[in-house]
């Protein structure tokens, strides 16, 4: 699909793979087991807005979405962190009030969840960063085309899938932890 150049889209035709997926998922959804919450959850619009603003203020300077001076970037990150603290306080307030928070604060009561969150975030940050560097080196440094770059990373993806399955299905059952 990377060489299809459908409608002059160049490599972007690869995103058309989402069309069959978007047709299969709704067709298979009736086969899923139904799971209902004890009460119907409500939408936390304020929490959603705070999370969106906080993450945006932190992420935009980190990815270089705009070229402002460093002090403006640091100011945006600090403002984003403050908004995220307000978000956390809001989530606690919503949960105490009996409404549905966007993120359930009780998840953070046990040490395992925050530790797993930090570890998985670190893992995926490193993994995604490494994959970007490898792809750029293959394509820009060695002149490899998109298809061969993808083939080069296929064993890595298979290895991640197998390791994830082993960790989730076998290791957690053996240790009694998730």
From TrEMBL:
Keywords from the UniProt entry: Antibiotic resistance, Membrane, Transmembrane, Transmembrane helix
Q: How does it sit in the membrane?
A: Multi-pass membrane protein
Q: Where is the protein situated, by its record's location annotation?
A: Membrane
Annotated membrane-spanning segments are 12-33, 45-66, 72-91, 112-138, 153-172
Is Transmembrane given among the entry's keywords?
Answer: yes
InterPro entries, per this entry?
MFS_trans_sf (IPR036259)
What coarse category fits the chief subcellular location reported for this protein?
A: membrane
User: Would the keyword Membrane turn up in this protein's UniProt record?
Assistant: yes
**Which PANTHER family does this UniProt record tie to the protein?**
ACTINORHODIN TRANSPORTER-RELATED, MAJOR FACILITATOR SUPERFAMILY MULTIDRUG TRANSPORTER MFSC
Protein name per Swiss-Prot or TrEMBL: Transporter
Instruction: Specify the species.
Output: Streptomyces platensis
